[in-house]
């Protein structure tokens, strides 16, 4: 799941850039009204930095696409 924050213009249109890591041809877009406050923004930025640092650590790469078994073995 990705969260992208964008501005809604006077024409009620938005423009987003899909991250290159998304390889599918379709995406589901959910619109949630967003009115940030300073405390929430500060907390979210700190959380994002912490998660980014943790997930960027190569020691976290303990699984590969070949691990596990498919839920639906007929695929």
What descriptive keywords fit this protein?
mainly alpha; 0% strand; flat
What does this structure look like?
It is built from 1 helix and no strands. The protein is mainly α and 75 residues long.
**Main beta-sheet strand count, sense and barrel state:** none
User: What's the mean pLDDT score?
Assistant: 82
The number of helical runs is 1
Outline: flat
Relative strand content = under 5%
Summarize the topology.
Blueprint: H1 38-56
Condensed summary:
This protein has 75 residues and is an all-alpha fold. It has one helix spanning 38-56.
């Amino acid at each position: 799941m990705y969260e992208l924050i964008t501005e809604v213009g006077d024409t009620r249109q938005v423009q987003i850039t899909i991250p290159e890591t998304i390889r599918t041809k379709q995406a589901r877009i959910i619109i949630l009204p967003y009115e940030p406050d300073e405390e929430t923004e500060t907390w979210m930025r700190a959380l994002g930095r912490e998660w980014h640092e943790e997930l960027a650590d190569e020691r976290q790469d303990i699984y590969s696409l070949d691990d596990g078994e498919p839920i639906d073995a007929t695929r």
